[in-house]
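task queued by scheduler; priority normal; single chain, no ligands, no partner chains; default sampling; output format set to structure tokens
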Amino acid sequence: MKLLHKDIEKDNAGQVTLMPEEAEDMWHTYNLVQVGDSLRASTIRKVQTESSTGSVGSSRVRTTLTVSVEAIDFDSQACQLRVKGTNIEENQYVKMGAYHTIELELNRKFTLAKKVWDSVVLDRIDQACDPAQKADVAAVVMQEGLANLVLVTPAMTLLRAKVEVTIPRKRRGSCTQHEKALERFYEAVMQGILRHFNFDVVKCVLVASPGFVKDQFITYLFKEAVRQDCKVLLENRPKFMLVHSSSGHKYSLKEVLSDPAVTSRLSDTKAASEVKALEDFYKILQHEPDKAFYGLSHVERASEALAIDVLLISDKLFRHQDIATRSRYVRLVDSVRDNGGTVRIFSSLHVSGEQLTQLSGVAAILRFPIADPSDVEDEDSSSDEA
């Protein structure tokens, strides 16, 4: 997705102009457009014409319309998005108030205006427009003295850094110069990883090289991580995967990504963290039920007590037609973030999102146990009866 223009006022009203570039962008757009918004886009309209002799014919013309959104239809198989609404701007082909359905197209811009742009929608735009947000696979393709640090998105590979260090050859009877240069090289690659790879987004780091360079580097990396107490690397150690490549040049990435072991590991990286979060929730629900809540009212109560560590919420809830209900979900997300909690927004198109929907679409893992609100209500009612 490309952000072409953004004009949002202090009262959060305003408009943005976007251009979808790939099928996945239609899914993001579906989560941005809501009933009551106004959408301006290029579209095809069937127009009736009457000739001077009185004969009536019809033709299809391309025109730009602005509609007030009344219905949104998304076809998840074809990734097509249709938006139905009434025309709200003068047009030579379409009367004011006439209905029209706009089918949004790839590589054609559209302008979306809202009375209120809330934090969840703005986050969705950042996520859709920032290639690094999609890059949940990172790779270090290396050989002695050369390393390319790359982020892999569904659409492209982004070279984030190139590390080049001259490594002198081993001399007979003395390897110190060679080893010192290697250490400088490994240190530079390590700093590049810390600077350019966002481990909150990246789910897998491929380290590829010919020979034993990758093995020696990984040994150095985690030895240094322990010495420097670098928690980011130590906590994300399982994400590193060693793979063979023919060289340290960027073009070797193609053979790395086509390796069967890599493809099976990366088959679903995007949803891997969501699946794990849901598994953690079910484990805690089984063993410590007072630290796992689900359902909006229960989760809101936990949020008021500043108890939420991880909020699990389905993106389906943010498409709710009732503005007041939708605002409750947005307030909940903002509250958890403001109080240092983690928010995981699940795609309702993924199996983990479907599972979460069975828990009414919202659940939370708590920092500390809280008595189940329904238990408290039962105790209150029994004490009243007594």
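post-processing summary
- The first strand starts at residue 2 and ends at 8.
- Residues 120 and 330 are 6 Å apart (CA to CA).
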